[in-house]
Specification:
The chain has helices spanning about 160-165, 185-190, 195-200, 200-205, and strands at about 5, 10, 15-20, 25-30, 30-35, 50, 55, 70, 75, 90, 95, 110-115, 115-120, 135, 135-140, 155-160, 180-185. With about 220 residues, the chain is mainly beta. The longest helix is centred in the last third of the chain and has 6 residues, at about 195-200.
């Protein structure tokens, strides 16, 4: 992992680099940990690739503008004050943890998450419109999300029972407390008439996913 020497410089393979003046296409090898530093604003890494994990949790960030163009490992951005995904990393290879922010929209530059996308504890987030392609799980507990409309690809969705039960006519989730976390097979959700009505364009794509209950959901902050 690149070693953060101070707020402005990193050391990689014995060479010191100015974090605020990295050349276009520069590859940070092994990941970069800026977490729990008083950055307030990220350095401009928008043309940089991080091979490994990128950590900017707990930095009092108002925006992800300046985030790396691509992160091959996990993106840990939880515990900030970000309201949108403007300037966000375009592609995350592993888990993307955006929990405990102040997101009001998922509109922005994030296009693909390889494993799980954690949106927990964003109470002002009411819609999953503009959600990126997600390889495994979407976590949206303790949000204002009221439907799963807008999701095009995922294996699993974790949400409140009040959201889950609207897609199942058999009352499977009707007796659950609304604060309970429900684990849903997204393939089952897509079969429901309500979801098809909400996502008429997606119905034609026939991109059902298989649920692997043995998989461990990553990216949840402890």
């Amino acid at each position: 992992m690149a070693e953060l020497i101070n707020r402005r410089t990193i050391s990689q393979e014995g060479i010191e680099y100015d974090l605020y003046n990295l050349p276009e296409g520069f590859v940070i090898k092994g990941g970069l940990d800026l977490g729990r530093n008083m950055y307030m604003k990220l350095p401009d890494l928008s043309k940089v690739i991080v091979e490994g994990d990128f950590d900017c949790r707990g930095c009092h960030l108002k925006s992800f503008v300046g985030a790396p163009k691509k992160v091959t490992g996990d993106f840990n951005g939880f515990g900030n004050e970000v309201t949108s995904l403007e300037g966000m990393t375009e592609e995350v290879g592993g888990n993307c943890n955006l929990s405990r922010n102040k997101l009001t929209s998922l509109e922005g530059s994030l296009r693909k998450v390889g494993n799980s996308l954690n949106l927990d504890r964003n109470p002002q987030l009411t819609s999953l419109e503009h959600i990126p392609e997600v390889g495994y799980a979407i976590l949206c507990e303790e949000t204002g999300v009221t439907s799963l409309a807008g999701i095009s690809k995922a294996d699993t969705v974790f949400c409140k029972a009040s959201v889950a039960k609207q897609y199942f006519e058999d009352g499977k989730y009707a007796d659950r407390d609304d604060n309970d976390l429900c684990m849903l097979s997204f393939a089952e959700v897509k079969k429901s008439a309500r979801f098809k009505a909400q996502n008429s364009a997606l119905e034609r794509k026939n991109s059902s996913q298989k649920l692997d209950l043995g998989k461990i959901v990553g990216g949840r902050d402890l």
